[in-house]
Amino acid sequence: MKKDRPYNFLTLRFVDKALEDAYREDDFFKGLKKHRTVCLETIFLYSIFGILDWAILPEQKEICWIIRFCFVCPLLLWSYFFSFTKSYRKFRTANTFVVGLSISVGIIAMIAIAPSPGDYLYYAGLLLCSMFFYGRIPEHFISNCLAWGTFALYVIVALSFTTPPGKVLFSNTFIYFFFNVLGMLVCYSLELSRRLDYLQRFTIERQAAELKEALGKMEKERQRAEELSLQDPLTGLANRRRFFEEADREYERTLRYGRSLSIMLLDIDHFKSVNDTFGHAVGDRVLQRVSGIIAGTIRKSDLACRYGGEEFAVLLPEADPQTAQKLGERMLRSIKQSKIILGNEQVFISASMGIAGFSEAEDVPPHILLERADKILYQAKNSGRDRLCLWGDPADKVDPAGRLLPVGSGNMS
Fold first, then answer.
1. Under 8 Å CB-to-CB from 313, ≥6 apart: which residues?
2. pLDDT score recorded for residue 119
3. Do residues 130 and 170 touch, judged by C-beta distance below 8 A?
4. What is the distance between the alpha carbons of residues 394 and 375, in angstroms, rounded to a whole number?
């Protein structure tokens, strides 16, 4: 057997057991309808040829009809109904052998009891049987067993129970032998063709499934890569790129539907001194703690991002400045109540925040809102940190020293 041949040359069974099992599974369901059709066809032919009994063997027709209608046809009918049961699959091969042999034995029995010339005229029925075996049974091994078994039984019965002329017997045997040889080759070719066709379909389906799986993995990897490209690796929040993409989309919705839009900028107070005193590892923990508080405070519709360094930005769709201010105050309180314990030391955290909101009276795109939030954030830091400042109309809002005092400014302590 060639190394690259996927099947055994003699049996045609696939070398791969899983492939052979899959083929048999497929072949069983395809062959089920064929088996039932063959049973009905054989019953019809076996019955209709009863006319020959009446025409050729009038004296023996009763015995022939008993063989046909009391033995073979009932067995075929039983096999037909048996194929609808769950047990059929288990006994499929045995059932095929029993039914096939009953058909052959029935004809050979009629040859044995028929006087000349009927004994060798019924020989044509055996050729019809072999034709059915080779053409209607899917496995060439079973077909060959039935056809050659029938041939051997015919020769034995012809020599033992009949007296046809020697030339007739030789002619019948010669024709029957080479009829079986031809049928064997045809049946072999048919099964090989079916198996190779199944192998091709199986290979295509497997490759299609593998391709689909590979494409699915690639798509997941692509989505993952896209998510990572839009995510800050340290905090897990969105990065600047995603923030500006979402900000532009929300800005368009705000203009289209007349909704509110606010942006807050938050900066951790004295973050550089935390890094210098405790190291960057602790600084990273501070960033992660603050980002967790931000993510846990904002609404599902909001988007928080790490804007850069220790600075965070939050996009607040459908939130006016006053709503954003309440959310920001709650966020700053949670940050101030948070602390990081390092052995016997504690790192206390606070932050400053600036908020700017969209105004229907003017077209304020996201980058302008960010600039305003940034300016008002530094106003909060310059005013003592740990506070929130809200951008508003600064007219006559000045402190006693004449410095700008934004609306909503106040200490969060």
1. 240, 243, 263, 264, 265, 266, 304, 305, 307, 370, 373
2. 58
3. no
4. 13
Our measurement of the distance from residue 336's CA atom to the centroid of its chain's CA atoms, rounded to an integer in Å, reads 50
Q: Which residues contact 17 (CB under 8 A, 6 or more apart)?
A: none
Find residue 340's DSSP bridge partners. Answer: 347
Residues 6+ apart with CB under 8 A from 229: 239, 241
Question: Coil, strand or helix: which one is 122?
Answer: coil
Sequence-distant (6+) residues with CB within 8 A of 179 are 127, 130
Question: What are the pLDDT digits (tens) for 263-285?
Answer: 999 999 999 999 999 999 999 99
DSSP β-bridge partners for residue 404: 398
With 0-12 / 13-18 / 19 or more C-beta atoms within 10 angstroms meaning exposed / middle / buried, residue 218 is exposed
Distance, in Å, from the CA atom of 117 to the CA atom of 56, rounded to the nearest integer, reads: 9
The three-state secondary structure class of 360 is: coil
How big is the chain, counted in residues? 413
The token pair that represents 189 in the structure block: 């070719």
Query: Using one digit for the tens of pLDDT, what is the confidence trace for 306-349?
Result: 999 999 999 999 998 999 999 999 999 999 999 888 878 888 99
Element (H, E) at 399: none
β-pairing, 410-411 with 387-390? antiparallel
- Three-class SS of residue 398? strand
